[in-house]
Amino acid sequence: MDVARVRRCPEKARAVGWANLGWNIGMSSWAKVLCPAMFQKYNQIDTAVFVAYCAITVANHAALGPDAAPDARRTAAARIRLLAKHRSDIRELIGVSGAIPALVPLLRSTDPVAQESAVTALLNLSLEERNRSAITAAGAIKPLVYALRTGTAPAKQNAACALLSLSGIEENRATIGACGAIPPLVALLSAGSTRGKKDALTTLYRLCSARRNKERAVSAGAVVPLVHLIGERGSGTSEKAMVVLASLAGIVEGRDAVVEAGGIPALVETIEDGPVREREFAVVALLQLCTECPRNRALLVREGAIPPLVALSQSGSARAKHKAETLLGYLREQRQGGGGCRSVEPVAASSLARYMSSSILGLDCFISKQLLPASGPLTAAHNVENLAYSIITILLKTIAGQSMISINCQIVVSRVWLGRHHLSAHFA
């Protein structure tokens, strides 16, 4: 089709820009020939939408064709990008017009402007659920990954978002990972803008619902930048990073990588002094790290996590309280191979350990239910607190070699300390 010819008004025969075609009787007749079904659907409903459809059709058959001049293709992609930006009905029209297959080759364009326009146009089109299958069928995934690796900063960000949208189709997640999307997404975690990091994090989280993609993310070195992002508080990246870390901790390689990258200290620090919402994500990640790994539980105790976990179990959100209590329960569990007693009489030592452990847990229950919500006289409350603290001090000196009881003592001491602050505030 001759570009010069189709860019003339059918009624007046005057040259016009394809995105500025006016609605008139001649246009109506021409549109009816182009697509009778669309004409019947939209002629009496929304003339603006139908004019857009006619313009899109012209662009698809003329400006986006393989024989079109580079400038014409660049301009056409930019126009479609703008047309698809806001209205769902226009996105649907673009999808059925055949423009999607014509946009895909531009994803590999050496012209950065044309590539960016094509990426963004496909991103906008992918917001319409019906278009996602068409974009996938047009073979856009691999070219989008290419744009993610080689494009401008905005092109990379928008390619990540487009892949996120396409990953809404579950079958696409494995394909996106296999096409090499994960390494450039990991690169965005370090070198991208704040928005680019957020887009990469969200896309990684969606892709890592597939186990093979978890393995790819760990192999691509995702854990180190994720741990680093935990410290970037206030930007929204910290929460997303912890969610992705929790996902990667679902496999053994992921747990090992998080520990090696210093993830446990970073997460404990967040529970200690992070914002309320970030504390919740941190305890979820720690729970995932420790659920099936006694070694990580020991590292968590060594890192001093018990006091902040106890505090979170008392003052966090309902979900955070539940997760913190669950994690504390894991830390209380007897380690495989016994309680670690070095006595020459293991049976007696084991009995002593069980007795003292149950005593401490009883004291813990008393403090949790009686001391923390105490509303009685200040003197009586302090007497209870001092008595409990004295008992704990004696126990700590007596059972220094019992690792399991030591953990329980730490929990009780933390509750007493929390109770001290609670009472001070209550009677102030």
TrEMBL record:
Source superkingdom: Eukaryota
Keywords (A to Z) from UniProt: Ubl conjugation pathway
Cleaved signal peptide residues: none
InterPro entries attached to this UniProt entry: ARM-like, ARM-type_fold, ARM_PUB, Armadillo
U-box domain residues: 72-333
ARM repeat ranges, renumbered to this chain: 98-140
Protein name (database record): U-box domain-containing protein
